[in-house]
């Protein structure tokens, strides 16, 4: 009730809520990994301007497997860093997908903002207009993120688990979940 999304993400990764120091370290790691490789920008240019943002996001998240090919030999030690990279990069890619679909330039992450503020910033700021975060919208979106963090065995979760059971690259597995989430069911 009083936690934010990153506290819940920490709980899901480590099995307990973080201490103050653990939370600060975790948020710094997430912020550090929120930037995506500049070469990913070229992928976006291959899509028609009328492409659905989910189609773009599906391809962009899946393409992260090309940037992290070492994850084909996934080890338990890679779990934490991979989870942090996913938590950090997927909002950036979601914002980029949206911005591309409406013909606006990408907005880079701002590590001085918290997780939810940063996502809203990337979605709604423009190079010539700073976005001022509405605290009501921020709190509502944070609650939405928490609700979606662990919502049992839905179609997209099942799809990711099935793909993951094959030992595929984790980013490729997450892209299968995005495809399933995109469906009308």
From TrEMBL:
The gene is gltA. GO terms for molecular function: acyltransferase activity, acyl groups converted into alkyl on transfer. The lineage of its organism: Bacteria, Pseudomonadati, Pseudomonadota, Alphaproteobacteria, Rickettsiales. Pathway: Carbohydrate metabolism; tricarboxylic acid cycle; isocitrate from oxaloacetate: step 1/2. This is Citrate synthase. It comes from Rickettsia sibirica. InterPro entries: Citrate_synth-like_lrg_a-sub (IPR016142), Citrate_synthase (IPR002020), Citrate_synthase_sf (IPR036969). Pfam families: Citrate_synt.
